[in-house]
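Tokens in:
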């Protein structure tokens, strides 16, 4: 086969590095934006964080015009400095305290046990294999293999089983269990079986766990030959146990409850909304003017540059250009976020007045994109992982978007309205005979909502509600 060369003319759409930078900044929430700006300050020598004057100082800081330093540059002033603060913002330090983690607490308790050095090392490794919920979800043979490779100690599953029994005696009760049944039995073992209800509860967990999980209550009462009242008391004892023993320890050493810092602040007073970006923790950056002076010093009066200064001049110029692009991208991010959030506020005005989810209008990304003139992908990046603080709580922006469904009268309603009706029906149902998805569909259809059974099942799962069989109570 002959080798040929030929020219092909084609059109390609490529994003510039500046556009890629803008896209990445746009999807960052406030906390990550703060870290990203600090990282850029470290990487780019010409960028610096501008310190705000202390409020106690009566002396006014000297006002220096940026144009004075960029007199010979045609760069717009907004590209050389960005102010992320409003006049009323205060720099408030955030104090975070962290206690012992669950693993540290367990290891501390092992220190009070009379264990040999070998047993202590093996027990500590077992504790390290326990997850945040308090379960040991790996089989002991695999743990023994890992110990041989990492610690260099040859052990067996039987030896680890003996040490695991010691861990089972530690607090919180149920820690180190390998499944839910063992977890609940460990918690029952630490209770005094001084009542009939507790003894019956332990028997149910030990011998009839599968029937209990599937809520075959009538079958259980028949096999155990107990009255409904005794059976109800036993079930109440089981419900007092925790399926996740790791949650029983809450000294602040885990990240199970992360802090949420809102990206927008929305205030509603006297019938008027006030919207702003939450940026008091975001550093205010500017270009260090010394590098601008350095460039001017390198250039002689006739506009020439010495050979030895060319490399340094090019380096500084590249850094200044990069800094200008970064500051411009920050400002563009600010404008895009405010523009999008203001459009969402205008679209969902009635909802933001009191937080009533029944007032949420059907809204998809394209609705906001059409009103702002931005692309759908841009709107998606704006609302992703962003929160707004309102007078009724902190709301995830993405949760405001919902599908539109039509009633029999042709009116469009939000899926949130249907979920609220679904939740209300399940809350008011007779617990002995819970409503099936088919029955819920009939109820919604009778109210004028044209909805299929599979859609009811989807919304029920989104609300975190189990099937009718698992909602059954006695």
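Residues out:
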């Amino acid at each position: 086969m002959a080798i040929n060369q030929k020219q092909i003319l084609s059109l390609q759409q490529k994003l510039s590095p500046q556009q890629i930078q803008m896209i990445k900044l746009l999807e960052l929430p406030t906390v990550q934006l703060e870290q990203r700006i600090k990282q850029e300050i470290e990487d780019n020598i010409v960028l610096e964080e501008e310190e705000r004057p202390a409020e106690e100082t009566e002396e006014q800081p000297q006002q220096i015009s940026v144009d004075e330093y960029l007199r010979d540059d045609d760069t717009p002033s907004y590209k050389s400095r960005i102010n992320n603060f409003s006049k009323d913002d205060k720099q408030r330090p955030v104090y975070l305290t962290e206690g012992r983690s669950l693993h540290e607490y367990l290891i501390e308790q092992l220190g009070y046990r009379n264990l040999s050095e070998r047993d202590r090392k093996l027990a500590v490794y077992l504790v390290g294999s326990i997850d945040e919920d308090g379960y040991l979800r790996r089989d002991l043979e695999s743990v023994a293999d890992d110990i041989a490779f990492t610690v260099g100690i040859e052990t067996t599953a039987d030896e680890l089983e003996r040490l695991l029994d010691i861990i089972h005696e530690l607090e919180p009760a149920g820690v180190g269990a390998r499944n839910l049944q063992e977890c609940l039995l460990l918690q029952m073992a630490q209770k005094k079986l001084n009542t009939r209800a507790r003894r019956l509860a332990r028997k149910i967990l030990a011998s009839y766990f599968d029937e209990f999980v599937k809520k075959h209550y009538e079958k259980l009462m028949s096999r155990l030959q107990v009255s409904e009242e005794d059976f109800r008391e036993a079930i109440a004892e089981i419900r007092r146990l925790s399926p996740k023993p790791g949650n029983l320890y809450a000294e602040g050493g885990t990240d199970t409850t992360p802090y949420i810092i809102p990206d927008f602040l929305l205030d509603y007073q006297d019938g008027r909304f006030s919207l702003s970006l939450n940026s008091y923790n975001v550093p205010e950056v500017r270009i260090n003017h010394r590098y601008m002076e350095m460039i001017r010093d390198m250039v002689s009066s006739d506009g020439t540059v010495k050979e030895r200064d060319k490399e340094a001049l090019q380096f500084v110029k590249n850094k200044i250009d990069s800094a200008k692009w970064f500051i411009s991208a920050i400002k563009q991010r600010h404008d895009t976020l405010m523009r999008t959030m203001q459009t969402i506020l205008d679209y969902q005005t009635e909802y933001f007045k009191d937080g009533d989810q029944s007032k949420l209008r059907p809204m998809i990304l394209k609705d906001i994109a059409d009103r702002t003139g931005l692309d759908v992908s841009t709107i998606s990046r704006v609302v992703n992982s962003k929160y707004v603080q309102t007078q009724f709580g902190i709301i995830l922006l993405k949760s405001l978007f919902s599908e539109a469904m039509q009633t029999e009268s042709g009116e469009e309603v939000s899926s949130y309205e249907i979920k609220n009706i679904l939740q209300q029906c399940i809350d008011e149902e007779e617990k002995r005979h819970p409503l099936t998805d088919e029955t819920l569909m009939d109820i919604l259809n009778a109210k004028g909502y044209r909805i299929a059974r599979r859609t009811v099942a989807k919304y029920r799962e989104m609300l975190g509600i189990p099937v009718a069989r698992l909602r059954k109570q006695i």
